[in-house]
Structure formats: C-alpha cells, structure tokens
Design brief:
The complex is a heterotrimer of chains A (214), B (281) and C (219).
Chain A lengths: L8 E6 L7 E7 L2 E7 L5 E5 L13 E3 L2 E3 L6 E2 L5 E3 L16 E7 L2 E5 L13 E9 L3 H8 L8 E2 L6 E7 L5 E8 L4 H26 L1
Antiparallel strand pairs in A: 1-10, 2-3, 3-4, 4-9, 5-6, 6-7, 7-8, 9-10, 11-14, 12-13, 13-14
Chain B lengths: L3 H4 L3 E5 L8 E5 L2 E7 L5 E4 L5 E2 L1 E4 L2 E4 L20 E4 L3 E3 L3 H8 L5 H4 L16 E5 L4 E11 L10 E11 L2 E7 L7 E12 L2 E10 L6 H19 L7 E2 L12 H12 L6 E2 L4
Parallel strand pairs in B: 16-17
Antiparallel strand pairs in B: 1-7, 2-3, 3-4, 4-5, 6-7, 8-15, 9-15, 10-11, 11-12, 12-13, 13-14, 14-15
Chain C lengths: L1 E4 L4 H13 L4 E4 L11 H6 L7 E4 L2 E3 L2 H12 L9 H30 L5 H24 L12 H11 L12 H11 L28
Parallel strand pairs in C: 1-2
Antiparallel strand pairs in C: 1-3, 3-4
The chains are: A alpha+beta (214), B alpha+beta (281), C alpha+beta (219).
C-alpha cells in the first residue's frame, strides 16, 4: 500500500476538463462527488447525491452560481444549501436541505479536493503542465513496474526515458486515476507524443496487473 | 429485506401475445423461472425446482406467483370497456429496485426536467395540492386531483393542456395511472406500469395501456410510451442507493411527494420490503 | 424523404439528428422494432434484406447504412458537414465512420442486451465498448492538441454524428462514461449545437436556457 503525503488532498480532475457552467463526476476516498464550476468561474465540490431522491448530482446542470439536480430541478448553492424547489416556487427551502460539500482548490491546472480539514495547500508541480487524465484498472505498483520508476511521496511517477510524468491516485472503486503532466514548454507535437506514450504505459501497466493477478 | 410478505402477490412475467413453445428464461424475486406455451396453447410457468407456478392471463400479460396468492389479480374495469385500444408497450430492463420504478411513476414534479417539452416544461413546474389516501376497503394507495401543465400530454394531444391525473398503487410493484383523455373528456386513459422484480436491484418493466384513440397508429402509441419510460430509465439507474429507502432520514420529501410518502408508508405497513432499504447505511 | 425509424434506435437517431442540424425535413415511418420485431417483417425485408433500420427511401433510392444516409443528407443540404479537401481530414472522416460500426456492435450490443433483453456476451461487449471509448478519448485528446474540437476538423462533420449516439448512450448498456473527460467535452459541444435534438436517454442541457421566473399560483 502506498502512503502518499498529499494529506487530505486528492487530485480529482484537470482544470481544463471543467469549463465554466459545467458539472462532472469525480471520486474521493469519502465517495463520489459532483465537481462543478459556476458561470463566474467558482469551483465547488459536493456529495454526488441529491438529498431529495438520491439522484446523482453530477448528472445535473449549472445555471449561474447554482447546481441543479436533473430529476426535479432542486438547486443548490456553493454552500450546499438548497435554494430552490421548482415544484414549490413560493417555498423557501428549509436550512436542513443541504448537500454535503468539500474543500476544493486549483493549483497549476489540477483540481484537488480535501476530505478532512485542510491545513496545508495541495502540492504544486513547478515546470509541469497538465495534459490529460485517464483511469486504469492497474494499481500503483503495476504502474511503477511499467514505468520503471517509483512514485514520489506526492504520487508523481517519472517514467524512465519518457518526457512525461504521471500523477497517480488510488480510487475507492479500485481503479487508479492518472493525470498526465508534461513540461510546460512542450510543443503540440510533443504533447501528442506524450499522450500516446501514456496510452502505451497504461497498456503495459494493465498487462503487469493481469499477470500479477494470474 | 423480506421476500415473505410479497411472495403471494401476482407478478407480470411476459407478454401474452409473445408466448412460445420454446419458452423464455427469466427470474422472479431471485428464482429462475421459465415462461412458455404448453401443447394446448396455454401459458405455463415453471419455477426453479421444476414446480408449476400459478398462471393468469390478464391485461395483455402473463402473471404468476412464487407463493399462494390469497387474492385475485387487482381489477382494471377499463380493460373490458368497448372502444378502448390495448397497447403492449414491451419490456424494458432497469437496474434499480422495483419499488423505485413504481415510485418514479407516481411522481409529476420531474416532468419538466426529465420529459422536457412532452409531459412538462419550465416555467410550469409548480405541483399544486392534491389528495392522497390509503383506501382501506381495497387496500390501495390513491392520489386524486393531480393537475399538471403538459406541452404534449399524449400522442393524441395537440398543444399544451393542463392534464388531470389519478394514481393508484394496486399491488407493491403494479401501478395504474388514469389521465385526461383528450379525444373523450368524459373518460380516463389508463396507463399502467407492471413491474417484474428480478432481484431487489433489478427489474423488468412491462408498461401497458388502455386508451381511447382511434387516430394514432399502434406503433406510434408504443413509441410514445417507450420514449417516456426510457427518459426515466437513466434517472432510475443513477439513484443512490438502488434500494428504496424506507428510513425517513434518508431522503427528504416535500408536499409534491405526498403520493410517494403514502406509498412508502403502505409498503412498510404490509412489510412489502423486497427492494427496500429499511435502515440507512 | 422517408425514414423507417425507431425512436429508441441510436442509428435512426443519427439520421434524425443530422436532418435536424441541417434543416432537412424527413417523413418518419415508425417501425415497431420492440416488441413487434417489425424490422424482420416481409415489407421491411423487401427494402432491406439485412433486416436492420434505419432505411431511407427517396424515389428509387434505398439506403440502409446510417453512415451512407448521413453522407446523403449532408451532400444534399449541408456539404460543410462532409470532409473538406485536406487529405488527413478526408481520411479522418472515413476512419471514424468505420469506427462507428464497431460502436454499433459493442456499445449498441451491450445496450440491447441490458435494456431490451437481446442475447449477447455482455462481458465481452462491455469490454470491447470500453476499448473503443479509450480509442475515441485518445483521438479527441489529439484533436484538441491540434486545436480542433471535433473528430475530423474544428467543425462537426458526419463522423461526429456517426459516433455520438452510441457513445452518449453507453451507460444504457452498463458502460460508464465517467472516465473520459475529452468525450464529455466533445459530447457537450455537439449537444450545444443549434438545432440539436435529443433522444430518450440523452437529456436536454437545461443550462442552455436561463433560469425561468416561476410565479406561485394563487390557487
């Protein structure tokens, strides 16, 4: 088991994959979350479950500064407080209707969510720029074997002979989330090459995983 | 969970018109069953250990039970009314509790968001007060005077109308909807949702209709109802938990959810808990 | 132009969507695919011996492959949806049109199995579907790095319409779309196009409409 020293922080997604006015699903050790960015650009993370009927909020939609559930349109503010129930337009939703929220930070194009009270900032990776995220059925040990390199305390794997880095984190569903990072100065051609190299590394890691399981 | 209280109920397991001698392997409350046509052309349902299960042919479907039904299948008098067209909509499998499938059918507040521009549309989102009761004489849940603005209430509707609904839960996994009938204002269209519980978290849904509509083709009627139900399916497969929570702390209802509240109370009262979550986890 | 159509068929939806986006009027002839299996009736087999839908009929012309129908609609009404003159663009359109046939087999097969109880090896179909989604994701990442938002160009083409429906409906077959951020952004770009229409299982992007002011009734 790898103990990563990112404290309460999990790197859940890349900033570029969450434009303003959208919501996406993500996972932290506490479970599934709805990660969303308001029209004005403010990031939020809430439990991925509408308190009304249990519908996944990441299937919902963002209007203005609020997240709405797709099922009945109940809207939630960044605080998690329910602010609107379309079936009862005149009703001010009671304070007890709220979705659990989490602390969220964006550093160098990576979005981090904290499970507990965060006393430190999430790590920053100087000189590296995010390229893409991918998930794999391979565990971190298999990724390390395929890359020929060990993960740093912050979860960074720098494969031998490649010009890319992998920021890895284990998810509660047994999959591993990988954020592929490249040097900030890389050209478009180099980035396409890095994306293909990352695909190859994933294939190799999954082969290792399969072999170890057999 | 408890299979026991629900085991003596009748459940739909196939379309009567599609029975064949080869038979169809399916499941009822976790038990593998085979639904086939015997040498005399009669429906035959065989349970897991080869025992013959009771059979009824009604409302376009084959019905069976794993236990010993104490009551006849619930009545739908409109099924015998001349002039109605009977529509076998066809099976759709959904990865959710059979009870969640029924509860969603009892809900109008989701129409503007899930059945957009058909059964509802913003800004007409308000659910006005309606009446809900558990009718002790027939032991059914009824909701009446449910009114909702609908852009296209039925295949036969042209333009928006305020539709009136009555909802009836006739059995733990079977529900009947009575709805304003645009071509015949004095009658109700009947739309049902018959749910076959495969397991507690998986069900086959057999919608069936008895309508007054001489204009629309049978295929159009089927497709209208399939459209509506398939819009619901992606909701039903993404509710957490998959089981229907009966613990009042788990989900928060409002006035618009009175039918659901009564349904859950009725399930609890009868210990109809196959597909339910009793204590929050 | 007459389209033999099934409301729940992603391949038929490709044609309806293409027509909606390019302003072509279709005369829809609904086919009772489920539960009636009308696509295997003598009338439909006479049009398409393969027993599949969609079928497009216009005068003497009968087209039975959705990719061919997309090309036909675009060539008539909106040539900008076809490949341009750049060789790699033309090739990419062909590449993804061919790829879309695999999506029909794997993601489409998984969906028919999980939803309408059609036979199939569900584990294999889902695994092939995931492999195809990974390919599509990688392809879209590369396109984005080239500064192009769609599969073959910086504008949508028939290739995008050919791939979109089975991808968007992958969850119907028990295949999650959560792991594919580039697919999510591409799907959103398509769903935001003027004239976009939905099919059951693909919800409206309600955020494209401003929050309405709802007055409480006095009843």
């Amino acid at each position: 088991m790898h103990t990563l020293t990112t404290g309460p922080w999990t790197p859940v997604a890349l900033s570029a994959d969450l434009p303003v006015g959208t919501v996406i699903p993500a996972r932290i050790p506490a479970g599934s979350i709805a990660l969303w960015r308001s029209e004005s650009g403010r990031l939020s993370a809430s439990a991925d479950r509408c308190p009304h009927r249990g519908m996944s909020l990441s299937h919902g939609f963002v209007r203005g500064e609020n997240l709405s559930c797709i099922y009945h349109g109940w809207s939630y503010a960044r605080s998690g407080q329910c602010i609107r129930i379309p079936a009862h337009p005149g009703l001010e939703p009671p304070e007890t209707i709220r979705a659990k929220t989490f602390t969220v930070e964006e550093v160098g194009g990576v979005i981090w969510v904290a499970t507990d009270e965060a006393t430190t900032a999430p790590p920053a990776f100087e000189g590296l720029a995010p390229l893409r995220s991918m998930t794999t059925t391979a565990g971190i040990a298999a990724i390390e074997a395929a890359a020929g390199a060990k993960a740093s305390a912050e979860g960074l794997v720098v494969p031998v002979g490649d010009t890319l880095c992998l920021l890895v984190s284990t998810r509660d569903d047994g999959q591993t989330l990988i954020h592929v990072l490249v040097t900030g100065a890389a050209s478009a051609e180099a980035r396409i090459g890095a994306s293909r190299a990352a695909e190859s590394l994933r294939r190799a890691a999954e082969a290792v995983q399969k072999e170890n399981a057999a | 969970m408890s299979v026991q209280a629900m085991i003596d109920e009748w459940y739909p397991v196939g379309i009567a018109a599609q029975l064949d001698a080869a038979g169809r392997n399916t499941m009822l409350m976790g038990e593998p069953i085979v639904v086939a046509k015997d040498a005399n052309g009669q429906a035959k349902v065989t349970g897991g250990n080869g025992r013959l299960l009771p059979v009824k042919m009604r409302y376009g479907h084959v019905w069976t039970s794993l236990g010993e039904p104490k009551k006849d299948l619930f009545p739908i008098p409109e099924a015998d009314q001349p002039g109605r067209r009977f529509v076998d909509v066809g099976v759709v499998r959904v990865r959710c509790s059979p009870l969640r499938a029924v509860e969603n059918f009892l809900d109008v507040a989701h129409f503007p968001f899930v059945h957009t521009d058909i059964l509802g549309a913003e800004p007409h989102t308000e659910v006005q007060n309606y009446k809900v009761e558990i009718r002790e004489d027939v032991d059914e849940v009824w909701a009446t005077q449910v009114k909702f603005y609908q852009p296209q209430a039925a295949k036969s509707a042209s333009g928006g109308i305020t539709t009136e609904y009555m909802y009836r839960v006739a059995a733990p996994t079977c529900t009947v909807l009575y709805k304003t009938c645009p071509p015949r204002p004095s009658e109700w269209d009947v739309i049902t949702l018959f749910v076959q519980p495969l397991t507690e978290e998986l069900c086959d849904v057999w919608p069936w209709m008895a309508l007054f509509d001489d204009e629309t083709s049978m295929t159009d009627l089927i497709h209208f109802q399939q459209t509506i139900f398939l819009q619901d399916r992606s909701i039903l497969e993404n509710q957490i938990p998959r089981l229907l929570p009966l613990d009042p702390g788990m989900e928060i209802p409002t006035r618009a959810d009175l039918t659901s509240i009564a349904y859950r109370r009725w399930l609890k009262r009868h210990n109809y808990t196959y597909g339910a979550q009793l204590v929050a986890q | 132009m007459k389209l033999y159509d099934y409301i729940l068929s992603p391949s038929c939806y490709k044609v309806r969507l293409m027509a909606a986006l390019t302003g072509v009027k279709l005369d829809l002839r609904p086919v009772d695919f489920h539960p009636g299996l009308e696509h295997r009736s003598p009338e439909l087999l006479a049009l398409n011996p393969a027993g599949s839908i969609p079928i497009l009929e216009e005068g003497d012309l009968i087209l039975t492959e959705s990719s061919a129908i997309l090309v036909y609609l675009a060539a008539q009404a909106a040539p900008e949806w076809l490949a341009g003159t750049k060789p790699e663009e033309a090739a990419r359109v062909q590449q993804w049109l061919s790829f879309s046939g695999r999506l029909t087999a794997n993601l489409g097969g998984a969906r028919l199995h999980e939803m309408l109880l059609r036979p199939g090896d569900i584990g294999a179909l889902q695994a092939q579907g995931i492999a195809a989604l990974r390919e599509l994701e990688a392809g879209l990442v590369e396109q984005n790095l080239r500064g192009e938002r769609f599969l073959a160009a910086d504008r949508p083409t028939v290739a995008d319409i050919a791939c979109f429906p089975y991808v968007a409906l992958a969850p119907d077959g028990g295949v999650s779309l959560d792991p594919y951020p580039a697919i999510r952004l591409w799907s959103r770009a398509l769903r935001s196009l003027d004239g976009f229409i939905e099919m059951p299982g693909i919800h409206r992007l309600h955020e494209l409409k401003a929050e309405p002011t709802v007055e409480e009734s006095k009843a």
